[in-house]
Design a protein that fits this description.
The protein is 44% helix and 8% strand. The protein contains three helices and four strands. A two-stranded antiparallel sheet has the order 1-2.
């Protein structure tokens, strides 16, 4: 008979951890609980440090939710700037494609409006 505990039998003495949500023993390398699918490993979004509890990183002290919120705000602002630069081009292309159907009236209007904006 081996000296391994019943929970470690067949796993090659790998460390086991208990799920904080349901109490099931799972392998120490598990990302999620096999029974209730609770997250068992959290990763710091800034440095990639892995830990067993979420919230604030144990190594760098960054609050994950605030950090991700700041990153999302920056990415949203960047996407809005890109959209604002792209919109006049797409309007011009749309007006050019619609010339056979609209006889070019919207194209002429958009060109006159943009010309008037440049003067002021």
């Amino acid at each position: 008979m081996s000296n391994l505990s019943p929970s470690n039998r067949g796993t090659g003495a790998r460390p086991m951890v208990k799920c904080p949500k349901c109490g099931t023993e799972v392998r120490g390398i598990a990302q999620f609980c096999t029974r209730c699918h609770a997250t068992l490993r959290f990763q710091c979004p800034s440095w990639g440090h892995e830990q067993r509890q979420g919230g604030t990183c144990e190594k760098c002290g960054i609050d994950s939710l605030k950090y991700i919120g700041a990153i999302m705000t920056a990415k949203t602002a960047e996407a809005d700037q890109f959209h604002d630069r792209l919109e006049p081009r797409s309007t011009l292309m749309k007006n050019i494609l619609w010339v056979p159907f609209t006889l070019g009236v919207p194209l002429i209007q958009s060109l006159l409006i943009s010309r008037d904006r440049d003067k002021s």
